[in-house]
Amino acid sequence: MLSLASTYPYCKSWCGAAVHWLFHTSNFPTTLPCFSKFHRPFRGLSAEHFCELQKPNMTENGLGHRERVLNVDTMNPNVKRIEYAVRGPVVQRAVQIEKELKEGVKKSFTEVIKANIGDAHAMGQKPITFFRQVIALCVYPDLLEDKFPEDAKNRARRILQACGGGSLGAYSASSGIEVIRQDVAKYIEKRDSGIPSNPDDIYLSTGASDAIVTMLKLLTAGEGKTRTGVMIPIPQYPLYSAALAELAAVQISYYLDEDKCWSLDVGELRRAVKAAREHCNPRALCIINPGNPTGQVQNRQCIEDVIRFAAEEHLFLMADEVYQDNVYMEGCQFHSFKKVLFEMGPEYSSMVTDCTTWCGFRGGYMEVINMDPEVKLHLTKLVSVRLCPSIPGQALLDLVVNPPQPDEPSYATFIKERTANLHILSEKAKMTEQVLNTVPGIHCNPVQGAMYTFPRLTLPEKAINAAKEQEQAPDMFYCMKLLEEMGICLVPGSGFGQRDGTYHFRMTILPATEKLKIVLEKIREFHKRFTEEFS
């Protein structure tokens, strides 16, 4: 039995929920209440006691032994195939080491520096003042009587007026709050030099991941050779491979060209789709631009070539443009797929179906273009199952796409903070590339955009063999030793996909400048020692 408990009706305004997994059998203790409907969580029940209560959750097998109703043999096999390296074994071990340090265990370092995930605020990046002011006012409207900038107050009032009951605690329409979808559409129109954007084509989401998984659900169909195949870049953000595994869809890998700064070659797309048609039905092409984990920014010619390829092969085009504002390298420019699509003329703009995603603060949006109206009804139905995206996330998204304007009191501070953050990231991108390329055995491409780098490692054969003996990928072996010896947490490249015989790691450039210098120096020191040990 599955029993769900929420804070309702005690604190419904935040819709917090806990889930208790209780599988009743005939010999379940009779002292337990019947959990047949929503109820409040157990009070005063220790984890040990709860686990004891679960022991009767077994059934008799033919040999008279008890087996759990849900075990690794009976669980959903698709879930077992999911891997998510960003929070995989290295990160889990990092959490254990942090606990050990707190307990007084002596190590050669005093802290674990996590450079594994793009968690800007956790890394010390200063939040934008205007954003926090408006969110604070929305969460606690009594502050509207205090000394906050008038534009922050006006923005908060506008958002609250669009919420049910004037509260962030209310549900919204499943596709998102209407005025925020209107603001997103205006933002897209301005970004794309006036190309129209319809608010009815905008779906707000709880981060871009939510939107991506929703679209993949909509696309997945068929069995055997008719099963949906989805083309994803290698290296890729592991959300894609994880979602495809969960949906039992087919991953079609196409490789980015590392020797050309992780560029995308249409010839490689053709190779991949031709091979895939032997065993599945390719239906979608995913592009991540700027790249995660590779940090490249695709040029306009590349984007045009991709659009032509998608039209020729009759593929649904998914443009993951989460890091569109994070472009650092001189000469690089972000081009939205939608803008290029429409500038290529009706031959393509009326033919290619496109979905663009963007995220932040666990808020995000997707814009669907040229979607069949009947399919769009099913998309709306699909998103309605989750009720609605996070309301605070929607509110923050509104501020991102509709920031302070030049005639408003918060504008100067906003521009100063935003410019400073992007400048610091640009400097750290350059520093990361420069320092890593001074280390023999490490090659780092320029970080053109996003907030990650994906350096290639040259590893001794002895180290590769040692990894195999431990049944680990060589770069997993490398990253785990780096963590244990230096306290630096990175993600092995094998978790993102890479060409056979190559090894990488992904790291974020987000740590504060002085801490990033420590990370880079420790990587330099460790790599030298590692290479000597296994030579």
UniProtKB/TrEMBL annotation:
InterPro entries: ALAT1/2-like, Aminotransferase_I/II_large, PyrdxlP-dep_Trfase, PyrdxlP-dep_Trfase_major, PyrdxlP-dep_Trfase_small. The keyword Phosphoprotein applies. Pathway: Amino-acid degradation; L-alanine degradation via transaminase pathway; pyruvate from L-alanine: step 1/1. One of its GO terms (cellular component) is cytoplasm. It comes from the Eukaryota. Its EC number is 2.6.1.2. One of its GO terms (molecular function) is pyridoxal phosphate binding. Its main location: cytoplasm. It is found in: Cytoplasm. Its cofactor is pyridoxal 5'-phosphate. Keywords: Acetylation, Aminotransferase, Cytoplasm, Phosphoprotein, Pyridoxal phosphate, Transferase. GO terms for biological process: L-alanine catabolic process. Residues 148-523 form the Aminotransferase class I/classII large domain. It catalyses: L-alanine + 2-oxoglutarate = pyruvate + L-glutamate. Catalyzes the reversible transamination between alanine and 2-oxoglutarate to form pyruvate and glutamate. Participates in cellular nitrogen metabolism and also in liver gluconeogenesis starting with precursors transported from skeletal muscles. Homodimer. Belongs to the class-I pyridoxal-phosphate-dependent aminotransferase family. Alanine aminotransferase subfamily. This is Alanine aminotransferase 1. It comes from Oncorhynchus mykiss (Rainbow trout). The lineage of its organism: Eukaryota, Metazoa, Chordata, Craniata, Vertebrata.
